[in-house]
Specification:
The chain has 338 residues and is an alpha/beta fold. It folds into 2 domains: 11-249, Aldolase class I (TIM Barrel); 258-332. 42% of the residues lie in helices and 14% in strands. It contains 17 helices and 9 strands. The protein has an 8-stranded parallel β-barrel, surrounded by 5 helices. The longest helix is centred in the C-terminal third of the chain and has 19 residues, at 258-276. 42% of the residues are buried.
């Protein structure tokens, strides 16, 4: 049975390719109970012509979790959204923000911001197909478009199709000449555009994304918008999220300590290795596929480097023994050990 979901997306973790897989989300869920998680982008082609289970299977404990789709054909998106609903996701999110050339060749991602009417058609098709929320993640502009009017008109057009939630990465997407990494760093942040969207569309849920790293920054943004989405800071410094439940959702239950988070992951890791095999040979699950997401758990603490080194030891990882986590924890508890 699906748990009761708090529909307020006060804080969330962004979809990040090669990072926010089901193992990462399961790890993050040990730290925060209420934060919304988003999958890596899954293309409609991968779902309609590939291994659906491989792309959509997730852990019951991950809720609330949203499926991010990449595509631009309304009918294909509707079918894919329906699959997502059937698999139990809490939200379907359409990617209109990814600037990579691979995504552009598929005519979706950030380039869709040039086709607001098509995005509206995609949203309507998905909304007609599912009962769960359909949301859009987008940039504030593309290439050298610097006018607020551009993103305002995009949001207005898509909202008319029934989208009530917009996740605004407050940077332009430069479609030619910048890598995806550079697109996350070089275009200037214009948080005021997201703030203005909330003023112009007070009935919509506006969530801000881009370069946000601290609780103080989250607090500042929440004065102006409905929610904040963290990206790489949540990945590299995940224990920051231990403050989220009490601070943003009113849940006063004590968060797990870092050591408790680590111990909570052990049964999951053992079960996954047992289910999928410990050996890399034959396509089995490698221990590193899970532990790589945990390297930042001790960020900011003495001996954190020793913890990371233990979890990155290729020889020990090859043994596939989850007790490597306990060895890493023990190294943390030895003053001066790096």
């Amino acid at each position: 049975m699906k748990p009761v979901i708090d529909k307020k997306r006060r804080v969330s973790v962004a979809p990040m390719m090669d990072w926010t897989d089901r193992h990462c989300r399961m790890f993050h869920r040990q730290i925060t109970r209420h934060t919304w998680f988003y999958t890596e982008m899954v293309t409609t082609g991968a779902l309609l012509h590939g291994d659906v289970s491989r792309h959509l299977d997730f852990n019951h404990e991950e809720h609330p979790v949203a499926l991010q789709l990449g595509g631009s054909e309304p009918a294909d998106l509707a079918k894919s959204a329906k699959l997502g609903e059937q698999w139990g996701y809490d939200e379907i999110n359409l990617n209109c923000g990814c600037p990579s050339e691979r995504v552009q060749k598929g005519a979706f991602g950030a380039c869709l911001m040039n086709e607001a009417a098509l995005v509206a058609d995609c949203v309507k098709a998905m909304r007609d197909a599912v009962q769960i929320d359909v949301t859009v993640k987008h940039r504030i502009g593309i290439d050298d478009i610097a006018s607020y009017d551009f993103v305002r008109d995009f949001v207005g057009t898509v909202a008319e199709a029934g989208c009530n939630t917009f996740i605004v990465h407050a940077r332009n997407a430069v479609l030619k000449g910048l890598s995806p990494k550079e697109n996350r760093e070089i275009p200037p942040l214009r948080y005021e555009f997201a703030y203005q969207l909330k003023q112009d569309f007070p009935q919509l849920e506006i969530i801000i994304n881009g370069g946000i790293k601290t609780l103080a920054e989250i607090d500042t943004h929440l004065v102006h918008v409905d929610g904040v989405m963290l990206g790489r800071e949540a990945y590299h410094n995940p224990y920051l999220m231990s403050a989220f439940d009490a601070r943003y959702y009113g849940d006063i239950a004590a968060p797990k300590s870092r050591a408790q988070v680590l111990h909570a992951m052990l049964p999951y890791i053992r079960a996954q290795l047992e289910l999928h095999g410990k050996s890399e040979k034959g396509g089995g699950l490698r221990l590193n596929s899970i532990t790589r997401h945990m390297l930042g758990l001790m960020a900011g603490l003495p001996n954190a480097r020793g913890f990371r080194q233990s979890l990155s030891d290729s020889k020990k990882l090859a043994l596939g023994d989850p007790d490597l986590l306990l060895q890493a924890l023990a190294r943390m508890q030895q003053p001066g050990a790096y």
